[in-house]
């Protein structure tokens, strides 16, 4: 999803322009949360990022569209999109005045089981039209967009999930590992995880790939970058070295390499890019 929405989620700062709706008890093991965000029309392009929680992002109308730009391709998506995995240097542009977007954020692992997808489905194409998988799993997009309110959309999504639910099977130790990495904000190593959680490296790597679609190191890097990004945009890049080191990077070059990989730009270049729309 657009990284500015993820920033709000990570900081827990919600208002009328962005808020969370807690899932019911029946689906809380599958859905982390439902979110409504007012799209920022001052920015022409929005950086897309994923912190390991797969999402579905719905535009206001079924005929509304966005343009996705990747390093090698540009394409349009109508109605809604799904994204997961490690997203690098991908931007989205709204083609209409999208006053609100509706987001369903899934727990890692649950998303793939719910929609019957291989966890490597998004490995080389981290953003796809939701229509590609909606039809095969019986999610009626037309009926969803006929819902007249946000609460109706939440109810529609929960009803579909409950009707499709056959039990999510994810090892408890894997949940502990995921929570450990998130709680340390990515300032950990795979060795730290295996030692403190009490699992061996091969088990951890195999179960991450099987259930999450990412390797443990990839998941760590996503958490580290996101928290570094949040501090960077809030500090306006006054001390890049401090931002990098305080978030677990060994040196500035390490941070620069990651930042360019995820955004396609150097840190100061990206900040100027964002400010140009303000």
From TrEMBL:
<dbReference type="InterPro" id="IPR046532">
    <property type="entry name" value="DUF6597"/>
</dbReference>
<feature type="domain" description="HTH araC/xylS-type">
    <location>
        <begin position="175"/>
        <end position="273"/>
    </location>
</feature>
<dbReference type="GO" id="GO:0043565">
    <property type="term" value="F:sequence-specific DNA binding"/>
</dbReference>
<dbReference type="Pfam" id="PF12833">
    <property type="entry name" value="HTH_18"/>
</dbReference>
<protein>
    <submittedName>
        <fullName>AraC-type DNA-binding protein</fullName>
    </submittedName>
</protein>
<dbReference type="GO" id="GO:0003700">
    <property type="term" value="F:DNA-binding transcription factor activity"/>
</dbReference>
<keyword id="KW-0238">DNA-binding</keyword>
<dbReference type="Pfam" id="PF20240">
    <property type="entry name" value="DUF6597"/>
</dbReference>
<dbReference type="InterPro" id="IPR050204">
    <property type="entry name" value="AraC_XylS_family_regulators"/>
</dbReference>
<dbReference type="InterPro" id="IPR018060">
    <property type="entry name" value="HTH_AraC"/>
</dbReference>
<keyword id="KW-0804">Transcription</keyword>
<keyword id="KW-0805">Transcription regulation</keyword>
């Amino acid at each position: 999803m657009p990284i500015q929405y993820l920033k709000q989620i990570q900081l827990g700062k919600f208002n009328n322009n962005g808020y969370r709706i807690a899932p019911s008890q029946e689906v809380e093991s599958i859905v982390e949360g439902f979110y409504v965000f007012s799209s920022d029309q001052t920015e022409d392009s929005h950086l897309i990022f994923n912190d390991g929680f797969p999402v579905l992002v719905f535009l206001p109308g079924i005929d509304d569209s966005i343009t996705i730009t990747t390093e090698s391709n540009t394409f349009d998506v109508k109605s809604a999109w799904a994204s997961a995995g490690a997203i690098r240097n991908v931007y989205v542009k709204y083609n209409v005045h999208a006053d609100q977007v509706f987001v369903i954020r899934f727990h890692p692992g649950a998303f793939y089981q719910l929609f019957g997808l291989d966890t490597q489905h998004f490995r080389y194409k981290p953003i796809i039209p939701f229509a590609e998988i909606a039809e095969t799993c019986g999610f009626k997009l037309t009926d969803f967009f006929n819902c007249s309110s946000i609460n109706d959309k939440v109810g529609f999504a929960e009803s579909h999930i409950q009707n499709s639910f056959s039990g999510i099977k994810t090892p408890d130790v894997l949940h502990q590992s995921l929570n450990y990495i998130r709680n340390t904000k990515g300032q950990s190593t795979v060795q730290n995880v295996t030692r403190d959680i009490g699992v061996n490296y091969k088990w951890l790597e195999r179960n991450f790939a099987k259930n999450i679609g990412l390797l443990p190191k990839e998941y760590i890097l996503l958490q580290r970058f996101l928290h570094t990004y949040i501090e960077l945009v809030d500090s306006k890049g006054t001390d890049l070295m401090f931002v990098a080191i305080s978030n677990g990077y060994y040196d500035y070059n390490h941070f620069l390499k990651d930042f360019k990989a995820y955004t396609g730009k150097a840190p100061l270049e990206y900040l100027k890019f964002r400010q140009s729309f303000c």
